[in-house]
Amino acid sequence: xxxxxxxxxxxxxxxxxxxxxxxxxxxxxxxGLLKSFPGVQALRGVDLELRSGEVLAVLGENGxxxxxxxxxxxxxxxxxxGTLLIGGRAAHFHTPVDxxxxxxxxIYQEFNLIPALSARENxxxxxxxxxxxxxxxxxxxxxxxALFQRLGAEIDPEAACRDLSVAQQQLVEVAKxxxxxxxxxxxxxxxxxxxxxxxxxxxxxxxxxxxxxxxLIYISHRLEELFAIADRVLVLRDxxxxxxxxxxxxxxxxxxxxxxxxxxxxxxxPRAVRPGNDRLVxxxxxxxxxxxxxxxxxxxxxxLGLTGLVGAGRTEVARCLFGADRADSGAIExxxxxxxxxxxxxxxxxxxxxxxxxxxxxxxxxxxxVRENFGLPNLRxxxxxxxxxxxxxxxxxxxxxxxxxxxxxxQDELARNLSGGNQQKVILAKWLERDCEVVIFDEPTRGIDVxxxxxxxxxxxxxxxxxxxxxxxxxxxxxxxxxxxxxxVMHGGRIAGELTDPTRASQExxxxxxxx
Amino acid sequence: xxxxxxxGWFASMxxxxxxxxxxxxxxxxxxxxxxxxxxxxxxxxxxxxxRELARPSKPGARALIVAGESREDAEFxxxxxxxxxxxxxxxxxxxxxxPAEAREALARIAGSGAGLELVAGTFTTAxxxxxxxxxxxxxxxxxxxxxxxRSYRWPNFLKSDNLLNIANxxxxxxxxxxxxxxxxxxAGIDLSVGSLIALSAVVCALLIRNVAGAEQxxxxxxxxxxxxxxxxxxxxxxxxxxxxxxxxxxxxIATLSMMLVASGLAFIAAKGQSIYQVPESFIWLGRGTxxxxxxxxxxxxxxxxxxxxxxxxxxxxxxxxxxxxxxxAARLSGVPVKAVLVAAYAVCGALAGLGGVVxxxxxxxxAPTYGQMYELYVIAAVVVGGASLAGGEGRVLGxxxxxFIIAVIQNGMNLTGVESYTQKVVLGLVILGAVLLxxxxxxxxxxxxxRSAAAPGASAEPISAAAPPPGQGAPTAEANRDA
Lengths: 516, 483
Description:
The complex is a heterodimer. Helices cover 35% and strands 26% of the residues of chain A. Mean pLDDT of chain A is 85; it is low at 1-19. In chain B, helix 8 (160-185) packs across helix 14, helix 9 runs parallel beside helix 11 (251-270) and helix 9 (193-210) packs across helix 16 (337-363). Helices cover 65% and strands 7% of the residues of chain B. The longest helix of chain B has 29 residues, at 219-247. In chain B, the strands form three sheets. Chain B has a four-stranded parallel beta sheet, sandwiched between helices. The chains are: A alpha/beta, B alpha/beta. Chains A and B meet through strand 1, strand 2, strand 5, strand 12 and helix 11 of A and helix 14, helix 15, helix 20 and helix 21 of B.
């Protein structure tokens, strides 16, 4: 104490008059965090500081160590080495509950909510307000309402979480964190599943919490968001801290450079394809209230962008096309031949491929090897009379691993152990090997780092150049604008409009159609 | 480099079949516990004795073989006579029966004046007083030695008969467990296998009695009856699979229903009785041997080899793992998920049927009470073998190891005289322990340590006087990193 008091004033007096306001209290301090997993050094000595009333963004490619950092802060993994100070006290988290007690709450990308329970029950799960073993539901309800009010959210505390929208579920998580008296809130890719208006609401809430003196750590891939919300940006690369910048002193390009360690000339690869004749023609596709009379066509070598707000029916169109869900009515033609698609098997035979939005639950067998995942739709090629020909499979996968720059310790590695970008590449490889004529990408770059994004875009262009018909569903408007030859915008299950020249269109044009 | 590769192979073997170590440890344990003085008998005793005996001191030396009346002793006498003659002895006589007969033989030889070098017998017969006192009773035979196979220490557990017995005892469960492995890999379960064993045994025996000609049934007739029984069970499995695949009924419920149905049908068909009007030759499958190995064990090994091949080398195997690993991802990759599911349950049913036929053959009858509780032992074998009830994981050979672990525990406890009720308790605990061990190995000991460390280490340290006040700590990261 003495030392601090005596040494500080002279120093500042000697400096130029650069003092603004006194530094806000330090909430969180991490020093030299190290963490390794079998075969991976996930974090190599990361330092970080978080002050009250600031939003610290953490940026990095997939596999850079962001998730590991989040999990250490949340008590899901203990670090191998390094110290964590919460409000100046050394903290040792062994379980998420330890972290919560210390005032650290994490809102993961996949929410930790029990779908069948109400918002109120989820908020107070494990800490039920009770008297003599009898639940005090009214008391809980009152507190839940107060929390939602503080967040400016209109959510019925008694509504089952499965009936809430993704954005609402997220707010339930935030409310739960607040009810735990969290001083430090970590948001892991909070905007990934949100529509633009929902993201704006989220930002308002984040700013509000910041004003209330919380420290927020915000993890995101979307650079433009960081400029809107963050105070400082911390960039990780390969488990190392490569820089911390105040947001006002850095440009988008500089951040990308820090993340990837190389210059990005342009964000989207150039296109040099002139679309030809119609290949895939869809007429009057209907399914319940989600897909209403959707008609469109995709030409040879064309990338057709399909966008709209979440819930507009984009994914449902893709699933109907692919036979994942049965369409009520409608006709599909490929190269003039009518297709009868009743299940995915029919679609694949006809030459369609679907890269689903949710890789973990629909794209991969996480507990099986990369090679098995890769081979699954191609087993006809990799077998004779029902007997596998592993050599063919191995050499084909090795080819793709090289051409897609798929970082793979060994082909029998479990898909679970790969980073998001590499998982997407495995899925890409399996469909490339299938050599489909129509490829449907549903959010092809969601949760993927910038470098891998570019590679995926390059691949989409390559496919188009080979005469394939591409349907690309995306919520990221720059991606839709930068990649598509034409853009369809959906609203309420219908095609709300078409933009035939993306080079002249703007994000606002799309949004105008998307909101109906 | 080679070392590295070997280590990798060993490590992967360990990772894939870690339960093998448990099996070996159990075997070692029971070997030590059942170590005992062994009295060699029968043909192997004869071979042992012949090895121990030196060649005769002079050519044409004469030997008398003395053995008891049992079948084992007959084999001993025959084998020993052959060996001694091959070793240069002249077998003067072979006595089989009572001491009195041995005395007569000795008297005959002494009377003939041809002399006798050796009296060879079993542990028991060689020490009959009549032989020990022969030199006194018959001075003509004074140079005679007597010999018997020397005893040795060896675990009862490791006697080849016992090992074959273990394999034979577990054959039915192991065969049925193949089908169960497939079903569990698809993230399902089949509770009906025990009842299907009974149904199959009853159907097979019933058909042999009523259609194929009862005790006079031909081999072809019996084979057809066996296949019919297997087919019936296959159809029941197919039905369970169809319920699971088409309507999404949880496999637990679908197969629980079929367990009741199949058991009831078995009782109805057999009218609650055992059916034993089958030909003597019906036991060929269950009790016959080929090259010293029981036919049931050979069948089991063949089926395991085939199943291992199917699961690792064929498209069907891949599909089974895919459906269990992530059914939706598999469907979106064009896997015929429903057909694969139905196939798994049908194969499981058919293999349960085969298990029933083997059991009927072993017991030479069919009864609706067969196979009770077998589903639990079968599931235990699969789970101990490393398959996950969540699906997508598991190996056929692991299941074989799991089945053997169960068999070895049961056999070992039988040998050490543990009461059968206690056996159940121990078996249950060992199954639990084996699976726990597997879990620890897979999640890593770290996981375990972290759990146990959580309690004492969790409390935050008190604020120390030396801690800098907020905002005055070490230089910020910006200053360090941005330079």
